[in-house]
Amino acid sequence: GEDVEQSLFLSVREGDSSVINCTYTDSSSTYLYWYKQEPGAGLQLLTYIFSNMDMKQDQRLTVLLNKKDKHLSLRIADTQTGDSAIYFCAESQFSGGYNKLIFGAGTRLAVHP
Amino acid sequence: DGGITQSPKYLFRKEGQNVTLSCEQNLNHDAMYWYRQDPGQGLRLIYYSQIVNDFQKGDIAEGYSVSREKKESFPLTVTSAQKNPTAFYLCASSGVGGGTPQETQYFGPGTRLLVL
Questions:
Q1: Which of A33, A111, B49, B77 is spaced 20 to 30 Å from B57 by Cα?
Q2: What distance lies between CA A77 and its chain's CA centroid?
Q3: Is A92 on the interface with B (CB under 8 A)?
Q4: How far apart are alpha carbons B6 and B20 in whole angstroms?
C-alpha cells in the first residue's frame, strides 16, 4: 500500500546538524521530495532527488537515499532558528496517468538556543 | 513574479452553505491540484486537473467540486455535503512530463476554512 512515514518531532540546538528521516513504500518511485512548511503558510519545495541517485547536496542541505531500505533523509547543517518548521517527505507514484505525490505526516523541527 | 495565489486567506462557512476557494497560477503549468491538510497529518488529494476542461477525483473528493475553464485557474467549491470542512486547503501546480522534474509540484500559500 501507499505509506510514507516520518518521526513527528525533532529538537536541536542552534548551530548543530539536524537529520530528518523518512521511509517510503513504493520502490518504483521516480522522485522523492522534501518540502518545508512554516506556520500558516503553504509548502515550499526544498529539494528533490531522482531515485537512481544516492546523494544530493545543495548548500546546507544534504539528501541521502537508500533505495534498498526505502529510506530517505534530509540533513540540515548549521541549523538556524529560521529552520524551525514542519518538513514533509513525499514520494512520487505514477498512477492514473499522472505523477501522484504521497506525503508523510511531517516532522516538526524545533531549534533552540 | 511567477507564482500561485490563493484567496481568501481565511474563509468562514455557515452550515448549509457552499463556499468557493480561488487558486490562480501564472507559471504556465498544465496541471493543478487541491489538497486538504488537517493538523498532524500529511496532505490528502481532493481533485486534480492535467488539462483545461478535464479533472479527476483524488482520494477525498466527496463533498467537493472543481472546474477548470482556464489554464490559470482551478477553483474549489466546498459544498454543504462536506460535513467536516474545517481544514487548511492548499492548491498546487506542475508541468506534465511523464516522471521528470517538470512534474514537481509548487504550492500556494493556502486558505484556512472555518465553520461558524
A1: A33
A2: 14
A3: yes
A4: 11
Altogether, the residues listed in chain A come to a count of 113
Distance CA A34, CA A72 (A): 10
**What single-letter amino acid sits at A110?**
A
Asked if residue B4 lies in contact with residue B23, where contact means CB atoms within 8 angstroms, the answer is yes
Q: Is A99 on the interface with B (CB under 8 A)?
A: yes
Contacts of B105 in chain A (CB under 8 A): 45, 101
A79: its cell numbers: 541549523
Nearest chain B residue to A93 by CA: give it.
Answer: B99
Give the pLDDT confidence of A63-103 residue by residue, as tens digits: 999 999 999 999 999 999 999 999 999 998 877 777 788 99
Q: Residue B99 is nearest to which of A43, A45, A94, comparing CB atoms? A: A94
Q: Is B89 helix (H, G, I), strand (E, B) or coil?
A: strand
